[in-house]
Amino acid sequence: MDTDQLIRTLAADNAHRAPRVGALLTTGLLVAAPLSILVFATFLGVRPDVMSAMHNPFFDMKFAVTLSLAIPAIIISLHLSRPEALLRGWGWLLLLPVGLLAVAIGSEAMMAPAMPMTMRLVGKNSRACLSAIPAMSLPLLAGALFGLRHGAPARPALAGALAGLLSAGLAATLYASHCTDDSPLFVATWYTIATAFVTAIGAAVGSRVLRY
């Protein structure tokens, strides 16, 4: 059987494959989530001023950004689990967090600065951010790859990268409740670097384990 015929055969099984992949991806994430939560509870925890922080729109913005990354990444990764699927027409969903951050950065720039831009950019938790998000992402990444492994992505490295994005987005949502740096500049810099690191791991591992 040549490659084109194999792809057509796999595509014909989509009606059965897609729900199975979705169910297994959900299962993998649910199994992995307690491990990520355990890491969060053991080493981080919710910030002590969380109740007052909820009145800060930039605190709420962090969750909007991380979830607007995680949810589209889940949707796109399920789409790409099919052998004939293309990223074309779906990639724009990943621009949602970029747009939210751009609006937030612009809004903060128009406000009277509470602290210098350098302090807002560097913050107090940059090192914690770069270590905590990847640490909490790894169990979720393993669960995501487990689910997507039952699909047939034509581009396994790209599917693995999406698994890294969704894992980092979910982990960053947890971390956002701990982080006391609420500036959009901080989020755009350090959350992005941590997410890029997890995405690279997902692409590297996915290129091997998601190959069919």
Give a quick rundown of the structure:
By secondary structure, the protein is an all-alpha fold.
Describe the model.
This protein has 212 residues and is mainly α. It is built from 9 helices and no strands. The protein has helices spanning 3-12, 14-43, 50-53, 57-80, 96-110, 117-122, 126-148, 156-176, 184-209. Helix 2 runs antiparallel to helix 7 (126-148) and helix 4 (57-80) runs antiparallel to helix 5. The longest helix has 30 residues, at 14-43. The model has no long low-confidence stretch (mean pLDDT 89).
Distance between the termini: 14 Å
Gyration radius over CA: 18 Å
Query: Which blocks of ≥5 consecutive residues have pLDDT under 50?
Result: none
H/I helix tally: 9
Order of helices and strands: HHHHHHHHH
Work out the helicity level.
over 70%
pLDDT averaged residue by residue: 89
**Helix/strand-derived class?**
mainly alpha
The major pleated sheet works out as: none
Strand content: under 5%
Overall morphology:
globular
Total beta strand runs: 0
Secondary structure layout:
Layout: H1 3-12, H2 14-43, H3 50-53, H4 57-80, H5 96-110, H6 117-122, H7 126-148, H8 156-176, H9 184-209
Helix pairs in contact: 2-7, 4-5, 4-8, 5-9, 7-8, 7-9, 8-9
Distinctive features:
mainly alpha; 9 helices
